[in-house]
Amino acid sequence: MTPRKIIIDTDPGQDDAVAILLALACPDALDVLGVTCVAGNVPLERTHINARIICELAQRPDTRVFAGQDAPLSRDLVTAENVHGQSGLDGPELWTPQMPVQEQHAVDFIIDTLRSEPARTVTLCTLGPLTNIGAALRKAPDIAERIQEIVMMGGAYFEVGNITPAAEFNIYVDPQAAEIVFKAGIPIVMMPLDVTHKALTLKTRRQAFRDIGNNVGQFTADMLDFFERFDVEKYGADGGPLHDPCVIAYLLKPELFSGRFINVEIETTSALTLGMTVADWWRVTDRPANAMFMRDIDDAGFYDLLTTRLATL
Fold this sequence. Notes:
Layout: E1 4-10, H1 14-24, E2 30-37, H2 44-57, E3 65-67, H3 81-84, H4 106-116, E4 122-126, H5 131-139, E5 147-153, H6 169-173, H7 175-182, E6 188-191, H8 193-196, H9 203-211, H10 215-235, H11 245-252, E7 257-262, E8 264-266, E9 277-279, E10 291-297, H12 299-310
Parallel strand pairs: 1-2, 1-4, 2-3, 4-5, 5-6, 6-10
Antiparallel strand pairs: 7-10, 8-9
Helix pairs in contact: 1-2, 1-10, 1-11, 4-5, 5-7, 9-10
C-alpha cells in the first residue's frame, strides 16, 4: 500500500511530540511531507526548535520543518507554559537541534504542496491552533478542494472546556482561524477532549514506554511524567490525557475511534464562550453536517499501537 501523504501542523508540546514520533515510526503507512509549526502551547521560536528535537530523536533529520504564524489571525497569543513548561517539552533533557528549519514560510509550504500534489492526496494533521491552516485558506482559497482530509485535535462537547469553561485550548487560541477551516467545505475528523480525556497516561503505560528500552521510549516516559501532573491535579484522574497522538492513531487504525458526522460551529464573538465548538451532537438543528466528531476510543488498543510503533525507532 502506498503511504498516505500528510503534513503535520503542530505546536510541540509533549503530546504533539508523541504524535510526531508515532508518525515518523510508520513510514510504511505515512509519508510525512513536512512538519509545519505554529505558535500555541509555547511561542513559535520554541515550537520549531521542539519539532526539530523530536525529528532528531527519531533519527529522521531529513524531515523538513517549517516555521509559520507567530500569532493568531486577529487576537493576542495565549500560550500554555503552565501545562507544558517553559520549553514546551519539559521533563527529559533537551538539546539544541542541528538540523535546520526551512527558509520557506509554513503557510507557503502548505499552499505550494497542496497545489503541486495530485488533488485530494494530502491530509493535514493539525495538533495545535489552526492559524497556519486558516492563513493558507485565506491566502489561497483554491487549496480547500485539494485537501484530502483534515484530522485535528481540537474542540469539545461533553467535556466542555479546558482553557475556559466553554472552550478547548487549540480552538480558543485562534477561533477565527478555526471558523475559516470549518466553513471551507473540507472533510474534517475531530479528536475533541471527549476522546482524548479517555486516553490516560496511566503509570503502567508510562512504564511500558520505558520498557521499550530505546532512547525514544525513555524520552517519551520522561515527557509524560512531567506532562500528566497538570491534568492529574486538575481532574483527579489516574493519569493525564494524551491528546495529539489520537490524530495519527486515527490514520493508522481508524477502528480505534467512534463518533458521529454532525454540524460544528465555532463561537468567535462571545466573551463568555469564545472558542467554543458548538457541536450539534443530537442533531437538533438543520445545519448541515461538516465534521466527524469522535466521542469514544479503544484506549488499550491506542496505547498498544503507540508502544509497538515507538519500539521500532
